[in-house]
Design the sequence.
């Protein structure tokens, strides 16, 4: 029978196993869960102080001593109430910062902002800037991301003018701080865009570089 298969391939019935294999692969592909399916079952939930604290511990835990880790711990009083997901961005900011008008008037320092909003992309930054119109009032907002904006341009703007709110990405904000372009001494509020997900369905805190 072996030689028949070699010399007379018409007598070998190989098509049926191939079809089975193909159908098995297709079945496996269908069964594979997508992250979107998983996320649909797990609704977004408000962040709590422990969420951020756990991330800091995971990131720095292997490289820092016990004493250094203690210095990284923040008390719950350092945190604002999280958005319970019933608020728009403007209404949430009004709730956590009721004295914004006074803070805005009193802010005179250059190279600094009163409120720093961090999110995962330039496009998301622009969305948040548009959505905070009802809150910001008569104040200047600075875009702190890399897309189409050079870091030197941002540093010049911070040095020459007074800005109240900065909205941008962690990478660009970090670079500005390290190059002494942005000073955080006057910053009273830091808002993290916690639950929003990008096209790959990652939150800002799920991105390793952040």
Sequence:
């Amino acid at each position: 029978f072996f030689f028949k298969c070699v010399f007379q391939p018409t007598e070998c019935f190989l098509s049926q196993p191939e079809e089975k294999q193909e159908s098995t692969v297709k079945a496996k592909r269908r069964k594979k869960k997508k992250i979107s399916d998983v996320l649909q079952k797990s609704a977004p939930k408000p962040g709590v102080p422990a969420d951020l604290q756990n991330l800091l511990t995971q990131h720095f835990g292997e490289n820092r001593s016990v004493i250094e880790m203690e210095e990284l711990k923040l008390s719950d009083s350092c945190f604002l109430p999280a958005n319970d997901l019933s608020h728009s961005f403007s209404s949430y900011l009004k709730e956590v910062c009721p004295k914004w008008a006074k803070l805005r008037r009193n802010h005179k320092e250059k190279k600094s902002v009163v409120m720093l909003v961090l999110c995962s992309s330039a496009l998301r930054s622009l969305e948040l800037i548009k959505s905070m119109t009802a809150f910001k009032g008569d104040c200047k907002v600075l875009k702190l991301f890399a897309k189409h904006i050079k870091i030197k341009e941002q540093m010049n703007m911070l040095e020459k003018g007074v800005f109240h709110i900065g909205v941008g990405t962690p990478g660009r904000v970090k670079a500005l701080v390290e190059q002494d372009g942005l000073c955080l001494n006057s910053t009273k509020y830091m808002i993290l865009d916690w639950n929003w997900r990008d096209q790959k369905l990652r939150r800002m805190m799920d991105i390793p570089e952040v």
